[in-house]
Specification:
Layout: H1 3-23, H2 30-52, H3 60-83
């Protein structure tokens, strides 16, 4: 994996994590936590969406959208675990 790929993944993860934190009404985890949630959320969405037959497309905007949906799902699951 090249440095540019890693940098793009971190940047997209940060944006997706920040958007997901705003959508989930303050369930963000700070800058580093949001990056982690965004990257892991993109991974989660990458596993779930193909199984459902859902395709977003290519490009940066589609990647951010994809990662944001995954991060929202991840934040929702973390919220359920915290309440239990």
């Amino acid at each position: 994996m090249e440095f540019g790929s890693v940098l793009a993944m971190i940047l997209i993860g940060a944006i997706a994590g920040w958007i997901a934190g705003k959508l989930m009404k303050g369930r963000g985890f700070g800058v580093i936590g949001n990056i982690i949630v965004g990257v892991v959320g993109a991974f989660v969405a990458g596993m779930i969406f193909p199984a459902l037959g859902f395709a977003v497309g290519g490009g940066v905007i589609a990647s951010i959208f994809h990662a944001t949906i995954g991060a929202v799902i991840l934040l929702f699951l973390i919220g359920l675990i915290r309440k239990a």
